[in-house]
Amino acid sequence: MVELPWELEEKILSLTTAKSLTRFRSVCKRWNTLFKDELFVNDHLSRSRPQFILLVESKICIVDVNLDGQSIEVHDLPQFDPGYGVLCDTKVECCDGLLMFSTTRGTGICNPWLRLIRWNESILDKPSGIGYDNSTPDKQYKIFSSCSSYTTTLHANIIEIGSDASKSKTYEFAMEFYSRSSVSLNGTLYWIAYSRVCYEHCIQTFEFSTERFEFYCNLPTKRS
């Protein structure tokens, strides 16, 4: 078979849907490396069509907006299995397109492109976010879960997605989170918190590479 010039091959791949790129990672090492390249990722994202997740009472949908053809496609994501709780009890977190559904009976990790979901009934301890160690080239996604506490001690579990390996950690912690929900950026988790020491509102982070909480910045507050 005559090989295409690499520039043309890369151009064709940049026009391919994200769902197909997910499967194409295993074709060869060169393609897998390309899909991690920042320039390729930015080029592919610039061509992507708007999509969003719709959470309704009975199901979860992914909505695909086609601006060229002026059409909207709605696809159902995997339904919740009986016993995992209803959607009104569900908290959704996201990281790099992966969705984490936290319910009263377990936690599910969903790949909306492949429309697949994997449930883990053992993760019940208030999952707060999903991220990864950004100090290594290969992303090993992990779940951070903790027990909220108003004392200076916070007990947490770090669970690897795939192997379900769990690690328990205890932190001396003088912060109060405004919400269990976090924002994941480049594998790091961010929360809005309140320091019981400095009496300041701030942004607190958790780095999976060091497995440590870090102060990010203070937030402007209006004092009386």
Automatic annotation (TrEMBL):
Superkingdom of origin organism: Eukaryota
Family matches, as InterPro entries: A_thaliana_F-box (IPR050233), F-box-assoc_dom_typ1 (IPR006527), F-box-assoc_interact_dom (IPR017451), F-box-like_dom_sf (IPR036047), F-box_dom (IPR001810)
Organism: Raphanus sativus
Top-level taxonomy: Eukaryota, Viridiplantae, Streptophyta, Embryophyta, Tracheophyta
SMART domains: FBOX
Every F-box domain range: 1-44
Name listed for the protein in its UniProt record: Jacalin-related lectin 38-like
Encoding gene, per UniProt annotation: LOC130507834
